[in-house]
């Protein structure tokens, strides 16, 4: 900005300039420049509203909006370079506007305060970011569905307590994450309504004596409504906290998937290999291929939780109405947005091209364990043996098998019948992994038929706009 600009921001009440260190401490321009485009949108709507209500003339409003458009262009071309002396993005715009359009620029702040202005800016910013994240969630879901589609018939071990429990269709496992992402998408859609309310016209805290039309500026900005109470309007940050809580949940889900991929990629599991485009090497151990992407997603999740905590603590002791503490809402919010968007993108790419499921290894794994033990008990129960009795019997069989280094499928029919006369030759079929999975055909279960239904329902859901 030109050095001719009077950088003294406040009124004549102040005789001397701020201590330079205090000026730097007070300034938010280094980070709230992120709001520039939204500040311009808010200011354009405000100028139009001032003209509509006769507070300024139409010609003046036009000069203002032209000046604002010019600033937008300068910013996009990298020519708009505010300094610490501008303090924040709102003053930076006002200073430049006055340089560009002269004295009329000094009229823009009529019937407005930086308090309702900044509230407007962050809502417009967050609304746009929410829309982007919701689109990203859809792409993430699509990537999960594409993998699921390929792996309906791939059987993987299912775990509880990280102990082999019952085998699953890999598609069923992946569809669990599609459901989580669905809730995330819906949750953000719900929060968007509360983000999308206009505080513009609440003034510093109490409204304004000018005959403003808040509904009009809100409409220009595509807000769904206006804050009913001016004090609440300038000091509410519930929407930012709600968003950060929703972002925390998105990251919980991404981090759980990340953790599974990290486990699966280990030699101990060997369920996936990572492709070269999505894994990294070690500087010393030449044999290594590291799962840095899911590890970073898991690691970055902590900072999102931290931002939620920061915002909650920032708010809890604030008396009405605006307090400068609220300037501290921006960095946590911006970093939350950046982190969740980055994590979503990385996990989506990982699903699209980073994972190769080792189907041979998976098939071998599920035929060499006792994850079909429940099915032996179910087999007897279906033949009228009380389930608890069957369960105890199978426990005994597993113990004997372990002692003799056998699997259930290795027992001869005579051995089975010695254990219980209800066993017949169809026991072998009943405990084969594919059959074990297919049998769990209850709604929401892993049976292949259910999984195919769930897959096609999930695909349809993806086409729903709201
Ligand atoms: N930079 C300030 C913020 O981010 C703008 C609002 C300043 N308002 C005030 N009364 N000092 O919160």
From TrEMBL:
Xref: InterPro entries: Arg_succ_lyase_C (IPR029419), Argininosuccinate_lyase (IPR009049), Fumarase/histidase_N (IPR024083), Fumarate_lyase_CS (IPR020557), Fumarate_lyase_fam (IPR000362), Fumarate_lyase_N (IPR022761), L-Aspartase-like (IPR008948)
Domain of life: Bacteria
Cell location: Cytoplasm
Domain Argininosuccinate lyase C-terminal: 370-438
Pfam families assigned: ASL_C2, Lyase_1
Keywords from the UniProt entry: Amino-acid biosynthesis, Arginine biosynthesis, Cytoplasm, Lyase
UniProt catalytic activity: 2-(N(omega)-L-arginino)succinate = fumarate + L-arginine
Keyword Amino-acid biosynthesis in record: yes
GO cellular component, one term: cytosol
Associated pathway: Amino-acid biosynthesis; L-arginine biosynthesis; L-arginine from L-ornithine and carbamoyl phosphate: step 3/3
Domain Fumarate lyase N-terminal residues, every copy: 13-306
Annotated GO biological process: L-arginine biosynthetic process via ornithine
UniProt KW Lyase keyword: yes
One Gene Ontology term of the molecular function aspect: argininosuccinate lyase activity
EC number assigned by the record: 4.3.2.1
SUPFAM superfamilies: L-aspartase-like
PANTHER family: ARGININOSUCCINATE LYASE
Family note: Belongs to the lyase 1 family. Argininosuccinate lyase subfamily.
Protein name per its UniProtKB record: Argininosuccinate lyase
Native source species: Leptolyngbya iicbica LK
Gene that this sequence comes from: argH
């Amino acid at each position: 900005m030109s050095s001719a600009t009077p950088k003294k921001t406040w009124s004549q009440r102040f005789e001397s300039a701020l201590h330079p260190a205090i000026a730097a401490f007070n300034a938010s321009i280094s980070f709230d420049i992120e709001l520039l485009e939204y500040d311009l949108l808010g200011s354009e709507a405000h100028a139009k509203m001032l003209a509509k209500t006769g507070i300024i003339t139409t010609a003046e409003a036009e000069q203002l909006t032209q000046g604002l458009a010019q600033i937008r262009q300068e910013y996009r071309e990298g020519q708009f370079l505010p300094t610490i002396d501008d303090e924040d993005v709102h003053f930076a715009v006002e200073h430049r506007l006055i340089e560009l359009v002269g004295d009329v620029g000094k009229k823009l702040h009529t019937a407005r305060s930086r308090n309702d202005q900044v509230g407007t800016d962050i809502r417009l910013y967050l609304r746009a970011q929410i829309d982007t994240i919701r689109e990203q969630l859809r792409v993430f879901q699509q990537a999960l569905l594409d993998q699921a589609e390929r792996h309906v018939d791939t059987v993987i071990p299912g775990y509880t307590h990280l102990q082999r429990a019952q085998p699953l269709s890999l598609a069923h496992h992946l569809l669990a994450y599609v459901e989580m992402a669905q809730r995330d998408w819906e949750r953000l859609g719900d929060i968007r309504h509360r983000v999308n309310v206009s505080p513009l016209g609440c003034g510093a805290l109490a409204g304004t004596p000018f005959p403003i039309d808040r509904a009009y500026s809100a409409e220009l900005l595509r807000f769904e409504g206006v804050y009913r109470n001016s004090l609440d309007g300038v000091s509410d940050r519930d929407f930012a906290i709600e968003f950060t809580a929703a972002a925390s949940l998105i990251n919980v889900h991404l981090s759980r998937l990340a953790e599974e991929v990290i486990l699966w990629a280990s030699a101990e599991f060997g369920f996936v290999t990572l492709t070269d485009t999505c894994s990294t090497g070690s500087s010393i151990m030449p044999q290594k291929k590291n799962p840095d992407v899911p590890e970073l997603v898991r690691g970055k999740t902590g900072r999102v939780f931290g931002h939620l905590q920061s915002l909650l603590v920032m708010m809890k002791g604030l008396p009405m109405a605006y307090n400068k503490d609220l300037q501290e809402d921006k960095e946590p919010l911006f970093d939350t947005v950046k982190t969740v968007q980055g994590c979503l993108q990385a996990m989506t790419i990982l699903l699209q091209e980073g994972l190769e499921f080792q189907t041979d290894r998976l098939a071998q794994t599920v035929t060499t364990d006792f994850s079909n033990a429940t099915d032996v008990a179910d087999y007897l129960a279906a033949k009228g043996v009380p389930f608890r009795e069957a369960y105890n019997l199978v426990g005994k069989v597993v113990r004997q098998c372990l002692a003799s280094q056998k699997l259930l499928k290795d027992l001869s029919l005579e051995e089975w019948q010695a254990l219980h006369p209800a066993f017949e030759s169809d026991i072998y079929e009943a405990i084969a992994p594919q059959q074990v999975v297919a049998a769990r055909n209850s709604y929401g279960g892993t049976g292949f038929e259910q999984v195919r239904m769930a897959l096609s329902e999930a695909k349809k859901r993806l086409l729903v706009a709201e």
